[in-house]
Every structure is written in structure tokens, then in C-alpha cells.
Amino acid sequence: MAGFDDPAFYGDRWAPVYDDHHARMDPGSAVEFLAGLAGEGPVLELAIGTGRVALPLAARGIRVGGVDASAAMVERLRAKPGGDLIPVTIGDMAEVPVSGRFRLVYLVFNTLFGLLSQARQAECFGSVARVLDPGGMFVVECFIPDLARFDRGQRVQAVAVTEDSAIIEVSRHDAAGQRVTAQIITLDEQGVHLRPVGLRYSWPGELDLMADRAGLRLQERYGDWHRQPFASASTGHVSVYQRA
Ligand SMILES: C[S@@+](CC[C@H](N)C(=O)[O-])C[C@H]1O[C@@H](n2cnc3c(N)ncnc32)[C@H](O)[C@@H]1O
User: Fold this and answer.
1) So what's the pLDDT on residue 185?
2) Which residue minimizes the CA distance to atom 16 of ligand 1?
3) Nearest-CA residue for atom 25 of ligand 1
4) What is the pLDDT of residue 2?
5) Pocket flag, ligand 1, residue 120 (CB < 6 Å)
6) Residue 19's pLDDT is what?
7) Can you give the pLDDT at residue 40?
8) Is 69 in the pocket of ligand 1 (CB under 6 A)?
């Protein structure tokens, strides 16, 4: 597999800059929410990345493990305090290649959409159901597709501009495939840096059907990690599915 179809592609391309790019994202409310469902664990984060959420969760004494396709991202996690104590399997989150059972599995920051087809996303729900304890929870955080962002299938956005750099996001929308292909482009004194993102979005109801087919039932859905009601104006959702 090559390019976007390679599960390691995103992480390998983003690992050197991932933490800097996302430094302003506070994981606090997600950690609070997940800790409330985790009990004593064990807990599994799919696409654990550099440990943005897993590390503060583990710091609360919860047993957290992870799966990620990118060894480069996991290397960043390992280099952080406590990072070497979190067991991580390098592999494809659609397959959830771990043994054992979990009280809670979670997949945050729209990363389910990194699986680029409906079939791959549905496979992920099925694999999660296989490793959940009876009554265990699967928590998913995703954005609500906003197709008005695109003008005739494309969008160019100035994300940040400073005295000596600019970050531009260039994206194309494939409505039939529910896919967005983007480059986050940094221009600075060192040159042009391309950071690719490929995603296949799903609507909440579509996710609920995938979950249902896997034996997982929607228990709760919120507009954010603070449990704001999910409503028409919500730009994202936090959904809690439970295994029967
Ligand atoms: C946007 S980052 C999210 C990392 C972390 N969960 C966070 O919230 O900061 C996406 C992560 O998903 C991983 N990833 C992408 N596709 C994957 C796949 N098919 N299987 C496992 N990990 C994958 C990437 O390597 C990367 O670490």
C-alpha cells in the first residue's frame, strides 16, 4: 500500500511537527470525560499517536494501552515522561490487533475518518466489539461534515500568518466518495513543507448503523466533551456506544 492507503502514511509524515501543530489543543475535557467511563480500565486508545490524550489519562492511574500504525508517532510518545510505560501495538486500527478485553476503547480527534472507506470504518467497529468487555464502551469523537466549506469542490484557507511564515490549507472535496484530500502547507525560511491529510467523513447516523451491525448501541451523544447537547448547530459529536 502506498500514499493515503498506507495506514502509516499520515503519522509518518506528521510525526516531526504533530505536537507543535496541535500545541494549543487542550485534552483536559476529553480526559475528564474518558476517565469517568474508564473505571480501573483497562482502556485502549486507537490511533494513540504521540499520547496527547493517553498520557494525561494514564497519569490518573488508569491502565491505558494503544494501537497506532506509525512507529514514528509512537517514538514521540516513548520520548515523553511516562510514555515508555504505555503498551502500544503497531498496526491498523481497523483490525484492532490486540489481545485482551477492555472496559473502554476510544478514538478521538476525527481519526476514525482516516479509514478511507465505509467498509474500513465498519470493520473498525466490528474489531472494537471483539475486544470490548460485555457492557464496555466505545467512545468516538468526530466532526459533523460541513459541505458549505467548499466552493465547487475546493477550498484554500490562510490558517496562520506571521512575520516569517504562513500556513495555508488547500483541500478538495469528493462528494460522491465523501472524501476530502488536503495539504497543510507551511511556507517559511527553510522552504515549503507539505503535510497531507486524507479523510472519508461519515454522518452520525451512518456511524450508528456501523455500530449497530457490530453489536454496539448508541447510549449517549453530545456536542462536545463538556456534554453540551448535540443539536443542529453542533460542529462535532462525542458518541458513546455500548456492547450488549
Ligand atoms: C490526528 S492523529 C491523532 C493522535 C491522537 N489520538 C491525538 O488525539 O492526538 C492520527 C493518528 O492516527 C494514526 N493512524 C492513522 N491511520 C491509522 C490506522 N489505519 N491505524 C492505526 N493508526 C492510524 C496516525 O499514525 C496518527 O498517530
Assistant:
1) 98
2) 7
3) 11
4) 85
5) no
6) 96
7) 80
8) yes
pTM of the predicted protein model: 0.97
| Interval between CA 163 and ligand 1 midpoint (Å) | 32
- 3-state SS record for the chain: CCHHHCCCHHHHHHCCCHHHHCCCCCCHHHHHHHHHHHCCCCEEEECCCCCCCHHHHHCCCCCEEEEECCHHHHHHHHCCCCHHHCCEEECCCCCCCCCCCEEEEEECCCHHHHCCCHHHHHHHHHHHHHHEEEEEEEEEEEECCCHHHCECCEEEEEEEECCCEEEEEEEEEECCCCEEEEEEEEEECCEEEEEEEEEECCCHHHHHHHHHHCCEEEEEEECCCCCCECCCCCCEEEEEEEEC
| Nearest atom within ligand 1 for CA of residue 27 | 8
Of 42, 57, 26, which is closest to residue 224 (Cα–Cα)? Answer: 26
Ligand 1 in reach of 106 Cβ (< 6 A): no
Ligand 1 neighbourhood includes 114 CB (under 6 angstroms): yes
Q: Whose CA is nearest to atom 2 of ligand 1?
A: 49
Cell of 4: 493515503
Ligand 1 site, residue 121, Cβ cutoff 6 A: no
Q: What averages of pLDDT result for each successive group of 10 residues across the chain (244 residues)?
A: 93 96 95 95 97 97 97 98 97 96 98 98 98 97 97 97 98 98 97 97 98 98 98 98 95
Residue 78 C-alpha cell reads as 516513548
